[in-house]
Amino acid sequence: MERRPLKKVCVVGGGTAGWIAAAVMAEHFKGRLFDIELVESDDIGTIGVGESTVPPFLQLLAKLGVNEQEFVRETQASFKLGIEFRDWSEKGERYFHPFGEVGAPVGLSDFYQVWLKARAHGYAHPFQDFGPASVMAREGRFTLPHKAPNTPLSVASYALHVDAKLVARFLRAFAEARGVRRTEGVVEEVQTRPDGFVERLRLRDGRTVEADFFIDCSGFRALLIGKALGVGFEDWSHWLLCDRAIAVQTENVGPPPPYTLAHAQACGWRWRIPLQHRAGNGHVFSSAHMSDDEATAVLLSQVEGPLVTQPMTVPFKTGVRERIWDRNVLSIGLAAGFIEPLESTAIHLIYRGMDFFFRYLPDADCDPALAEEYNRRMRADYEEIRDFIILHYCTTRRDDTDFWRTVRTMELPPELQRKIDLFKVNGALVEGLDALFRDVNWQSVLDGMGVTPRGWHPLVDRLPFERVPGELDRARAGLAELVARLGSHGDFIARHCAAAPPAPPARVA
């Protein structure tokens, strides 16, 4: 049978999802395989509040050949060493989920296991005292890990806080410079062939756009994958109760800290994402437990600095498409699914979706075996992230509101329940294939939420334990001393990648 290669791919929708998809195709294929056209309309706004990333985002920039310092300047970004969680396990308690490693293996034993036995024998210092990202974040200091080779700082990792709209603008310029054609227009109709494949788009002004393959980046509207092809959506709101967010921007008060804040509230949580010249703030909440007006009032009572935007309401539904790729339509971003932004995974799932698309790149006939394997792998990613987010809720000890009583007693996805039960034995964990969240991530959150295993791995008993507390103390003191020598996060930005000062903000009364 004669093979029919793709000649043209059309991306429907811009924003972060659309321009990441266009940019990575333009760079990956360098105009040698097929033409790329992106259809978007300035009349249709993008959500633009996803302003936090995870470390693999830096790998995306590297694959694109983007200079990291230039990107930080152009997107007014700051550096992110992890997330500080306040009031999640109980009111008044806080913990830090860092990027990178915590401690170093001791012989054949994972550091967490050694620390676990030490704590059971009265060792007082917390797990995160041995995490370089955690200690830098606590002290407000920063350096690039590769600038500190052969030291404990080298095993830290980091991501970025970015302005989502500036990211889309940056990637649009990048993609257009590499041959991507942008068409301004509103999609009025999606026309399909008798076999159900999408054939063309009809725009509001009567123009049509044809392609062999379409990438649906139309957000929650899901114009192609949902409305045209009728692919269903699997709702996860029975596990993730929050379904709305109020977002607002404020002026910075002091230098930006190198971490995201996730502060639990009565019926959800609020974020603070500090950029170079402003902060993004939001309140994620359950509309079954709180009204928009109440949620807005809670957020405005806690933000720091004058407002530079009016509060914006963002409704959402957590879940995933039953098929993320169906026939000749691939959905990316919000069109494919959404998991609330607690661990900043939305942008990660966009480029993860494109990475798997490259692995299973079809021809114009779109053999369903390729789509089936793609959907299996991407669904595993969505479920892994879903379970990790649920972990933050179900391990709480809070019972002060109906919201917290519900999430701490709900029936969990079986795989998540299995992981928690296994961890409680002796800290053992099931690490998924090519998972985003590794053992140290689960250890950090479970420890931060107060979940303590009943024992430790027997291999730790091979160590001469009388030396362990002293070795831990030396490691902890050495890390603290290294961090104390670093400059502040703000100083690092000022020296290496400061963005141009913005125009004075128009404050909102």
Automatic annotation (TrEMBL):
Entry-linked InterPro entries: FAD/NAD-bd_sf, Flavin-dep_Halogenase_NPB, Flavin_halogenase, Trp_halogen
Enzyme's top EC category: oxidoreductase
Keyword Oxidoreductase tagged: yes
GO molecular function, one term: oxidoreductase activity
Coiled-coil regions listed in the entry: none
Taxonomy, superkingdom: Bacteria
The enzyme's E.C. designation: 1.14.19.-
Matching SUPFAM superfamilies: FAD/NAD(P)-binding domain (SSF51905)
Pfam families found in the cross-reference section: Trp_halogenase
Entry keyword set: Oxidoreductase
Designated name of the protein: Tryptophan halogenase family protein
